[in-house]
TrEMBL record:
One Pfam family matching this protein: PurS
Organism: Methanosuratincola subterraneus
Name by which UniProt lists this protein: Phosphoribosylformylglycinamidine synthase subunit PurS
Root EC class: ligase
InterPro entries recorded: PurS, PurS-like_sf
Molecular function in Gene Ontology: ATP binding; phosphoribosylformylglycinamidine synthase activity
Amino acid sequence: MRFLVKAEVSLKRGHFDPEGDVASKSLRDLGFSVGTVRVSKAYTIEVDARDPTEAKALAEEMCRKLLANPTKDDFMVEVLVIEGRTA
């Protein structure tokens, strides 16, 4: 079966996020009342797996091996679509 999964990779708390800081300042300059802004990357990945559990496990392995740096990044994975249907 083919699954569509989303992997979101973001900096761990305590790591400097210059893009987030610039976005936060710029939003305030535009008149928006915002606090901290954190930037993350989202990957949408098609995977072949037996079931949603395996699809999620495969995406988590991809994050551990390539997409996320364990020293500075956290990640979360969710199954979005199962062969054209919403999960």
